[in-house]
Amino acid sequence: MKQQIVKHLFLLYAFICIPLHGQETYSSLTRAALETMWQSADSATYKKSLAMYEHAFSLFPDSIEDMGLYKASVLAGYLNEKDKAFNYLNRLFQLSSKLPLSTNWRLIIGEYAQDEYANLLSDPRWSDLKSKALKAKQTFYDDLKAQEKEFYAVDKVPLNKTKDGKALYSEMKKKAGYLPKQHQNYSLTLVINDTARTAFLVHLPPNYNPAKRYPLLFFLHGAVRNNLLTDYLPAAWVLYDWNRYYTKYAELNDVILVFPQGSKEFNWMTSDKGFFMVPKILTLVKKAINVDDNKVFITGHSNGATGSFSYLMKQPTPFAGFYGFNTQPKVFTGGTFVENIKNRSFINFSTDKDYYYPPNANDDFTKLMNSINADYKEYRYNGFPHWFPEFDESEPAYKILFADLLQRQRNPFPKEISWEFDDNRYGNIDWLTNIKLDTLASRKAWHKEKNFKISQWLEYNEKDSLITKTVDKMAFDFPRKSGKILAKYANNVFHIETSCIKSFTVNISPEMVDTNKKVRIYVNGKLRFDKRIGYDASLMLKNFDATQDRSQVWINQIDIR
What we know:
This protein is of the alpha/beta class. It folds into three domains: 26-146, Serine Threonine Protein Phosphatase 5, Tetratricopeptide repeat, CATH 1.25.40; 185-410, Rossmann fold (3-Layer(aba) Sandwich); 414-447 and 482-560, no CATH class. Helices cover 34% and strands 23% of the residues. The protein has helices at 2-14, 24-39, 43-59, 66-78, 82-96, 106-109, 113-116, 124-151, 165-173, 235-238, 244-252, 277-288, 303-314, 359-371, 395-407, 537-547, and strands at 185-191, 197-203, 214-220, 256-260, 291-300, 321-325, 346-353, 376-385, 416-421, 432-437, 453-460, 466-474, 483-490, 493-499, 501-508, 518-523, 526-532, 556-560. It has an eight-stranded mixed β-sheet, sandwiched between helices. The protein has a five-stranded mixed β-sheet with strand order 9-13-14-16-17, with no helix packed on it. The protein has a three-stranded antiparallel β-sheet with strand order 10-15-18, with helices on one face. Helix 3 (43-59) packs antiparallel against helix 4, helix 4 (66-78) runs antiparallel to helix 5 (82-96) and helix 5 packs parallel to helix 8 (124-151).
């Protein structure tokens, strides 16, 4: 199985820069040339592969792209056909000048150049190319910096901190000041800590109008253990190939796409160190782009789909709904508290030939979701492996996803909340925040774990054949003690039940209560608060600065200890 996965990962990387719009024939020819090159590291194979590339170039001169020229130059270099190699490299640089934020300079001064172009290094033409590459690199970073500055430019109209609370609330709800953007794609920087940073790509709808509020969809990549942080994330790396249908339907439906880049250490599945990334990126984007606060979504494939599910389980407040292709519905950093899904929704697009999560487990998970009346749907596509998005037959799934996204929106002030967690960092859900665990308390009778057993798993054997393996494992792990809170409100009265909870905060919005009347809060049947609530301007400004949320605006909060 490792060989098969690696092969598909290499294919994804190799062709991630090839747009699929109207280039299927050219793409199929260059893909066959690449696969031929991989067959054997000998001169005869390389000559055959180079001839196949040249055949594609001659048939489709208008379709020639950077990856094809790069591979042809490497092959010509290996074969010591220096004139051909330099011809392809020079054409590659000519092409780069027409590409926004091209990174082809990396091929000359990157870590693999010494090996790939070993036969060219002593040629004077190589020094000229290297000089061009160094200049191109400097230009690239200058352009990157300028585009980031332009992206965050807004018509700065600061919130009036001297206004009374009601006026400030009204101002926050209608905050604007967004400007037109010069580009459709922006590679932007996310600072992780003092020593680490990464990039994320924002893909705007065609003809973006700053006066209009737009839905936004995050895509989380998979293979988190094999990815690295990056200084930049060009559009060509993420908008095509396996993600081509996200791009197609986002543009058709005026949806903003955001692609974060994680790593083994900082990601959305295996590490809490990187879990802040998506909410932080959302806040940054909202400062510059007119986002519909009630239409922000997360999707992903494989580890990215598990990441989407993890945000649903641990930090769903800013989001309206969640999706995943080939999902393993499990939290890897703590307990999986499935009833948390009742606060939002999840759609899973699964396949029956998936080594990552078997169909029998998906069946049992769906039964569990139905038993708690969760807003959950699974669409099964039979006959396909884990890398389902590679296939054209996956397109109907994207139509389902975007149809759901267009009609779904977040309720920022739900009447009822059910929330369970085992880490105080994730003791927040909509109008309940700062919930703290009491690990010494005893569980209430209604506070129960939900789990199921998995007895079969799919895996690839030495012959790359998919086989069924007998296993004895539970679907979820529960490494720590959890707390749970059930809450609802109506007519200025809150009723809250807690289990293993020490304290919490109730956030107040005038869309939830009548501020001219007292607010009553009952906790486990006892009256704990009975007062009127006013507007706290400093609190409002602090929360708004942290979230940039114009819909879910809190005017005050009540601490219950």
